[in-house]
Amino acid sequence: MTTRRSFLKHGVAAAAGVMFCGCGMVHNANAQQSRQKLPVTVNGKRIKTIDVHAHCHIREAAALLGADGEKIHILPINGGDEVYIGVEKRLAAMDAQAVDLEVLSINPYWYDRDRDLAGQIVKIQNEKLAELCASKPDRFAAFASLTLQAPDLAVQELETAIKKQGLKGAAIGGAVNGVNFSDPKFNPVWAKAEELGVPLFIHPQGIPELTKRLAGNGWLGNTIANPLETTIALSHLIFEGTFDRYPGLTVIAAHGGGYLPSYADRSDHACLVGPRACDPTIKLKKTPSEYLNQIYFDSLVFTPEAIRHLAAQVGAKQIILGSDYPYPWQLAPVDHIFACTSLSDDDKADILGRTAAKVLRLS
């Protein structure tokens, strides 16, 4: 059993301060291994597979929260003994999943902290992510963390992350302490992301207001609330005109974009059916569903049929590979892409890596 204490003896990951979770998957690797192997080929052509939805943890950053820092660690959730694993085991897991490169991100647990403390957390995280990515540039890239509750600081952090640290965009939650991203105070952040030409990866954190309704069996706070929060975040960006103000802003939505792709046509009808519930001063330049062309959606929808449906709604060129690793949502993230018979070879190559390489400006 690898304990938190003994993990510090591991190599690159421990030195960089980046923690990888075992989450029981090392033990189940043989039973759940991907059918696809590296190198991945489509119609005889080598494709570099890029997983844009993968997580890690920075111990030094969380330590700034004292005892609270232990609560946000990625812990085993699949019956495994290993809490943290070294980088070589992480690479072995990626090989088993047929993933060439992971784009790492950290879910924002610091939005409710004061500006200075949150800024320290973000600074450490971005430095450690950059260090790891520089040590293994062929296997890891990363999205920066941002102190989004302080938009002026977030703008500085984003510029530093892209221009000096080599990070590929930023990971953000679905809201900031209950404030929607369409609030004008966040506009400088969206403007900076547009200026830099980098994507923002939206990963939901759940909806605290629904905690009571979602109590009970089924982990509904995640199962339902996470996709719902993404749907709400994207819908506000559309209906409040944020995408019109920043037409060059690129967003990547986790978990297939939540429920929005399946209900985009309903969005087109909302203000026609209920005009009193819509603001007549906001004149969108397009129908709501057309803004989906400004959004990329990860492929974490589990089945070939779900991929077929997502592609039918948003277009295959808007889908990019995502697994949510090390959480065991989809341990063979490449397989359902190959199994989707409605996708052409070009579609599959795009989803597996070509589109992400373009969006993230990876060589």
List the helices and strands and how they pair.
Blueprint: H1 4-7, H2 12-16, E1 18-21, E2 40-42, E3 45-47, E4 50-55, E5 57-58, H3 59-63, H4 67-71, E6 84-85, H5 87-96, E7 101-105, H6 115-135, E8 140-142, H7 151-163, E9 170-172, H8 187-196, E10 199-202, H9 220-223, H10 225-239, H11 242-245, E11 250-253, H12 260-273, E12 295-298, H13 304-314, E13 319-320, H14 335-338, H15 345-359
Parallel strand pairs: 4-7, 7-8, 9-10, 10-11, 11-12, 12-13
Antiparallel strand pairs: 1-5, 1-6, 2-3
Helix pairs in contact: 7-8
Structure characteristics:
363 residues, alpha/beta, TIM Barrel, 5-stranded parallel sheet, 3-stranded antiparallel sheet, globular
Can I get a quick summary?
The chain is α/β, with parallel strands linked by helices and 363 residues long. Helix content is 39%, strand content 12%.
